[in-house]
Write a structure and sequence with these properties.
Blueprint (H helix, E strand, L loop, with lengths): L1 H131 L3 H11 L3 H131 L33 H7 L9 E2 L7 H5 L2 E2 L1 H10 L9 H4 L4 E3 L9 E4 L7 E7 L2 E6 L3 E6 L3 H6 E7 L3
Parallel strand pairs: 1-2
Antiparallel strand pairs: 3-8, 4-5, 4-8, 5-6, 6-7
Helix pairs in contact: 1-3
């Protein structure tokens, strides 16, 4: 009977301890599960924020690189404008010198004309005097009557003849000199006309380059504005990420606290059960343990492949000839026609195209107008790498470049120097009128 009572007491104690353990652990586990779920949500949010932050930082880096590229283009345009201005200054000096020389020649011609007129009037006066006084015979009689001897007579007659001949020779010399000065004046005026035409072209290029610079500066302002927006977005994302990190850390502390409560409850329940068991019976023991573990793993492999492509032939050689000048050249009007220019990467559009073709033994003229007639005109739909493409800039067909395929061309542009550019969108697409010339068969 006593034994029976002891067993019942032991069972009751075990049940009470078990009940405390089960319910206590259950409550803690439930709270922990809720906190874990909340932490997982925060971690997911952080991952999304971090992904957005990474993309924003990459976009910011791209924008900064774009600004740097725009700055380089503006610097190239500035170099081109400076070189063009130097050429304009030189041309203005030549025009001034030629105009001054033409003015001097005009003054010399006026003096000669006055001398001729004066001498001619003198001869007319003599002729009139001869006519009024009976002509040359009267003059000879005066000479005879006024002479003091035969020798004096001969001397006077020769003097009169010599004077008449000298007048005639002098007039002929003046007229010859006048003709020579007129020829020189015509040459200077022709030079002036050529310089005036060059000045008009230089002014057109300057206006075009100024427009390019303005466009680049507007683009730079837009990119800088976008950069500022991107930096503000990154600051917001970093702030959100920081707040979520703090929230995650707080949740981790709370989870650890709940787990510690769970462990403390388990220890208390085990201690109570142990005490009850010891007080009830020395021959009965009750132990319980529980543990769990989960493990998992996965592995995956991926294979990657890459593609490569290339180009060959004369067209490829022409296109690749100027690669060393990309990012290392300056647009200069009239450039590319001397070893000094070529060594220093100083080209204008036609100078670069002529030089590139010379690298494969094809001689092309060094002017845009002449290149229009240096090969066979084809339709724009038939163009292929190596063909010449023309664009309307400061004048019709004012820019020439080499088609590189894929809607791109390579040439010496005022904003970039030697570079690739797209002709399927933007400025060059708007100024391409379908003019294509083929020089390679």
């Amino acid at each position: 009977m006593g034994e029976h009572v002891v067993k019942k007491s032991f069972i009751l104690a075990a049940v009470l301890a078990g009940s405390f353990t089960v319910f206590g652990v259950h409550n803690v586990a439930e709270a922990t599960s809720e906190l874990e779920s909340e932490r997982e949500n925060v971690q997911d949010e952080r991952e999304d924020i971090q992904s957005e932050l990474s993309e924003a930082e990459q976009e910011l880096a791209d924008l900064m690189a774009e600004i740097e590229d725009i700055e380089k283009q503006i610097a190239n345009i500035e170099d081109g404008l400076q070189a063009n201005q130097e050429k304009m200054d030189q041309t203005e000096e030549e025009i001034a010198e030629n105009e001054a020389r033409v003015k001097e020649l005009e003054e010399e011609i006026e003096i000669l004309e006055a001398d001729i007129e004066e001498r001619f009037n003198l001869l007319k006066d003599r002729a009139s005097s001869y006519q009024r006084n009976g002509g040359p015979t009267s003059s000879y009689i005066e000479v005879i009557l006024g002479s003091e001897g035969f020798g004096d007579f001969i001397s006077r007659v020769l003097t009169i003849s010599q004077i008449a001949k000298a007048d005639n020779d002098f007039i002929e010399d003046l007229e010859l000199k006048q003709d020579e000065l007129s020829d020189v004046q015509a040459e200077f005026e022709e030079t002036l006309d050529s310089l005036d035409e060059q000045m008009v072209e230089l002014e057109g290029i300057e206006s075009y380059m100024e427009d390019q610079r303005e466009q680049q500066e507007v683009l730079r302002e837009e990119v800088e504005e976008h950069t500022a927006e991107q930096e503000s977005m990154i600051e917001d994302l970093e702030s959100q990420e920081s707040e979520l990190a703090a929230e995650e850390a707080s949740l981790a502390d709370r989870i650890e606290a709940e787990l510690e409560r769970q462990r403390e409850a388990e220890r208390a329940a085990a201690q109570q059960a142990s005490n009850t068991s010891n007080n009830t019976s020395n021959n009965t023991s009750n132990t319980s343990t529980s543990n769990g573990s989960t493990s998992g793993g996965s592995s995956s492999g991926q294979a990657a492949s890459n593609n490569s492509g290339g180009a060959s032939g004369s067209a490829g050689a022409v296109i690749n000839a100027g690669h060393r000048y990309i990012g290392n050249s300056t647009y200069v009007f009239g450039g590319g026609r001397s070893n000094h220019d070529i060594q220093n990467g100083r080209f204008d559009c036609s100078g670069y195209v002529s030089w590139a073709f010379s690298q494969i033994g094809v001689n092309l003229p060094a002017s845009t107008d002449a290149m229009l007639h240096s090969g066979r005109r084809i339709s724009a739909s038939e163009k292929r790498p190596g063909d010449l493409v023309f664009f309307d800039t400061y004048k019709r067909n004012g820019h020439v470049a080499i088609y590189a395929g894929g809607g791109r061309f390579i040439g010496a542009q005022s904003s970039t120097g030697v570079a690739y550019a797209s002709m399927t969108s933007g400025y060059w697409a708007n100024n391409f009128r379908g003019v294509v010339v083929r020089v390679l068969n």
